[in-house]
Write a structure and sequence with these properties.
By secondary structure, the protein is an alpha/beta fold. It contains 18 helices and 20 strands. It has helices at 30-35, 37-43, 78-90, 109-114, 140-143, 184-199, 228-238, 258-265, 279-282, 299-312, 331-334, 341-356, 386-395, 402-412, 449-453, 459-472, 474-478, 518-521; strands at residues 11-14, 47-50, 54-55, 67-71, 94-99, 128-129, 158-161, 166-169, 204-207, 248-252, 274-276, 320-321, 361-365, 480-484, 491-498, 501-508, 514-515, 528-532, 543-544, 549-555. The strands form five sheets. It has an eight-stranded parallel β-sheet with strand order 11-10-9-5-2-1-13-12. The longest helix is centred in the middle third of the chain and has 16 residues, at 184-199. It is globular. It starts with 10 loop residues before the first strand and ends with a strand. The structure holds 1-O-alpha-D-glucopyranosyl-D-fructose (TEU). The site of 1-O-alpha-D-glucopyranosyl-D-fructose has 14 residues, from loops.
Length: 556
C-alpha cells in the first residue's frame, strides 16, 4: 500500500465541552482549545479530532446538529474556528471535524419544516411511516408504531408526530431524527456542506455512526445496509477524494469485522482512510444488557482480538488504534489498574505502549495522557449523559437494581470520559473560572497536566516518547506484526519488523511479577533497549515487574 501522511500521524481527540473554558460559563470552548495548542504541540500530536462544535440544542452534547455551517454560541464563532484552524496549522496540527450525518437535531430547519406537513419540500429528508392502525386513543400511540426497532438510547426508535399523525424514525434520542439517505437530495446537501468545511482548511472527518446510513428500515436492516458502500463511494468522489485534497477520514463502525473494515479502508475501494472497530469494547458487554452489566476484562481475550486485527489488516486496509473516546470509560480504570498510584501510572504506560507499537494510526483521548480515571458520582442527578439517564429509566427496577445499574454506570457510563480536563490543582482542575457543567473528578488535586509537566517520568512524557518514536521509526508504523510466546498467560509479547529493523515489545498485564519465557531470557545482545515504563531494566532480564512495558530494537 502506498504510504499516506496520516499513517504515521497521531490523533488527539478533544471533547470541546470538557476541554478548556475561556469565558467562565463552565463550558469548554474554541478559544480554550486555542489556549492549549502549545500543550498539544509539546505532546507531539498532529491531528486534532474535535467532537461536534456545530450549532446544536445539545440534547446529546452536540451530536444533534441544528446548523452544520455554524458554531454553537457556547463554543464560539466561525471566526474562532477559522483562527483555531490557522493557529493549529502554525504548530503542525491539522483539524478533523466530527461529521454527524446519520441524523440531525429536531431543531434543524429541515426537520422543523418536514414535521409540519406532508407537503414540505424537506419531508423526504427524514423517515416517516404511518401508524399500523388508526390511532383513536393516546394509548394507541405506543401500540401503532410502524415496527419494533428500538432506539440505541432506549425505548422505541419511532416517535409520534402529532401534526402529520405519523411517526418519524430516530435511532438515538427523539431529538435526533434520522436522515433519509435513500433520498439523493440528502447526499447532495451533505456533500455540499462537507466541501464547504474542507475549503475552510480542515483535514478531514471522523464520521459518526457512518455504518448506519445504508439502513433499510422496512427490512429492519440497520447497520451495514446494502447501500452503505455505494453511498460512501459517492461521498468520496464528491468530497474528500477530489483531486488535490489530502484528507484523512475515519468512520465509526461498531459492526465492522475485519472483512468489512477492509471494504472501507482499502485505498482502491475509494471510501475511507480507516475505521474505528469496537471488538475490544463489545467483547466485554453482556449479550442482553450491553455495557450496563459489563463483564470483567479478560486480557487473554483482548490479546487475541488485537492480534486478529493486526494480522487481518496486515496487507489490506488500515487500523485505527484506540482505547478511549468520549463514549468509553477511561482506559486506566477499565483495562488497567487505578487502585494505587504506582499501578495507575505503570498500567497507563503499559497500555499505551501496547497500542502505540502496533500497526495503524493511534488516537489519544483528552486526559488519557495524564492517566485520568473514571468518575463515581454519588447521585444519578450528577450524571448528564442522555444515554446513561435514559438507560437508568429503562432498566431500573425492571431488570437491574439501583445499585447494579450504578455499578454499570461507574464501570462504563459515558460521563467517565466527560468530566473536565484536569489542567492543574486549581479549583475544578483549572478547567474553568466558573462552575463546570459537569462535576470534576476530585483527584484533579494530584492527577493534572501541570503535575505531569513537572515530572519527567510522567505519563505525559511517556506518551510524548511514543508519539515521537512513531514519527522517526518506520518499523513501528509499517512493520509486520508477529505475536510471540502466545502461551505466556500474563504477558503480551510481540514483534514488529520492517526493512531490516525490528521492535520487540514485552508487556506484563498483571499486577504481579512474571517470569519471562525461556526463549526470551537469553535475549540476543543485539536487541538494544529502546523504551520502558520502569526507570531501570533488570540485568540480566528474567522477569517483568507489575505492568511493566519494555521495548527493544534490533537493526540488522
Ligand atoms: O456513538 C454511537 C453509539 O452508538 C454510541 O451511542 C455508543 O453506542 C454508546 O455510547 C455505547 O453504549 C456516536 C457518538 O460517538 C455518540 O457520542 C453519539 O451519542 C451517537 O453517535 C449519536 O450521534
Amino acid at each position: 500500500m502506498e504510504h499516506n501522511w496520516w499513517q504515521n500521524a497521531v490523533v488527539y481527540q478533544v471533547y470541546p465541552r470538557s476541554f478548556k473554558d475561556s469565558t467562565g460559563d463552565g463550558i469548554g470552548d474554541l478559544n480554550g482549545i486555542i489556549e492549549k495548542l502549545n500543550y498539544l504541540e509539546a505532546l507531539g500530536v498532529n491531528i486534532l479530532w474535535l467532537s461536534p462544535v456545530y450549532k446544536s440544542p445539545m440534547d446529546d452534547n452536540g451530536y444533534d446538529i441544528s446548523d452544520y455551517q455554524d458554531i454553537a454560541p457556547e463554543f464560539g464563532t466561525l471566526e474562532d474556528m477559522a483562527r483555531l484552524i490557522r493557529e493549529a496549522d502554525l504548530r503542525g496540527i491539522k483539524i478533523m471535524m466530527d461529521l454527524v450525518v446519520n441524523h440531525t437535531s429536531d431543531e434543524h430547519p429541515w426537520f422543523q419544516s418536514a414535521k409540519q406537513s406532508k407537503d414540505s419540500p424537506y419531508r423526504d429528508y427524514y423517515i416517516f411511516r404511518p401508524p399500523t392502525f388508526e390511532i383513536k386513543t393516546p394509548e394507541d400511540i405506543e401500540k401503532a408504531v410502524p415496527s419494533d426497532i428500538g432506539s440505541i438510547f432506549s425505548g422505541s426508535a419511532w416517535a409520534y408526530n402529532e401534526a402529520t399523525q405519523d411517526y418519524y424514525f430516530h435511532l438515538f434520542s427523539k431529538r435526533q431524527p434520522d436522515l433519509n439517505w435513500e433520498n439523493p437530495a440528502v447526499a447532495d446537501e451533505i456533500h455540499h456542506m462537507m466541501n464547504w468545511w474542507l475549503d475552510k482548511g480542515i483535514a478531514g472527518f471522523r464520521m459518526d455512526v457512518i455504518d448506519l446510513i445504508g439502513k433499510e428500515i422496512d427490512q429492519k436492516i440497520i447497520g451495514n445496509g446494502p447501500r452503505l458502500h455505494h453511498l460512501l463511494k459517492d461521498m468520496h468522489n464528491a468530497t474528500f477524494g477530489c483531486e488535490g485534497r489530502h484528507t484523512v477520514t475515519v468512520g465509526e463502525t461498531w459492526g465492522a469485522t475485519p472483512e468489512i473494515a477492509k471494504l472501507y479502508s482499502k485505498p482502491e475501494e475509494k471510501e475511507l482512510s480507516m475505521v474505528f472497530q469496537f471488538e475490544h469494547v463489545t467483547a466485554f458487554h453482556d449479550p442482553e444488557l450491553g455495557k450496563w452489566r459489563s463483564r470483567a476484562v479478560n486480557f487473554n481475550e483482548l490479546k487475541t482480538i488485537f492480534a486478529k486485527w493486526q494480522t487481518e489488516l496486515a496487507n489490506d486496509g488500515w487500523n485505527s488504534l484506540f482505547w478511549n473516546n468520549h463514549d468509553l470509560p477511561r482506559v486506566v480504570s477499565k483495562y488497567g489498574n487505578d487502585t494505587t498510584e504506582a499501578h495507575r501510572i505503570a498500567s497507563a504506560k503499559m497500555l499505551a505502549t501496547m497500542i502505540h507499537f502496533m500497526k495503524g494510526t493511534p488516537y489519544i483521548y483528552q486526559g488519557e495522557e495524564l492517566g485520568m480515571t473514571n468518575i463515581r458520582f454519588d447521585h444519578l442527578s450528577d450524571y448528564k449523559d442522555i444515554e446513561t439517564l435514559n438507560a437508568y429509566t429503562a432498566h431500573v427496577p425492571s431488570d437491574l437494581s439501583h445499585d447494579d445499574m450504578m455499578a454499570g454506570i461507574y464501570a462504563d457510563g459515558r460521563d467517565n470520559a466527560r468530566t473536565p480536563m484536569q489542567w492543574s490543582s486549581a479549583p475544578y482542575g483549572g478547567f474553568t473560572d466558573g462552575t463546570p457543567w459537569i462535576g470534576t473528578n476530585p483527584n484533579y488535586a494530584t492527577i493534572n497536566a501541570e503535575a505531569c509537566l513537572n515530572d519527567e517520568d510522567s505519563i505525559f512524557y511517556y506518551y510524548q516518547k511514543l508519539i515521537h518514536a512513531r514519527k522517526t521509526e518506520p518499523a513501528i508504523v509499517y512493520g509486520d506484526f508477529e505475536w510471540l510466546c502466545q502461551e505466556a498467560e500474563q504477558l503480551f509479547i510481540y514483534k514488529r519488523g520492517y526493512k531490516g529493523e525490528s521492535f520487540l515489545v514485552l508487556l506484563n498485564h498483571s499486577d504481579a511479577q512474571v517470569t519471562l519465557p525461556n526463549s526470551l531470557i537469553n535475549l540476543n545482545p543485539d536487541w538494544i533497549y529502546f523504551l520502558g515504563n520502569y526507570p531501570e531494566t533488570i540485568q540480566p532480564l528474567s522477569y517483568l515487574r507489575p505492568y511493566e512495558a519494555l521495548v527493544f530494537k534490533q537493526t540488522l
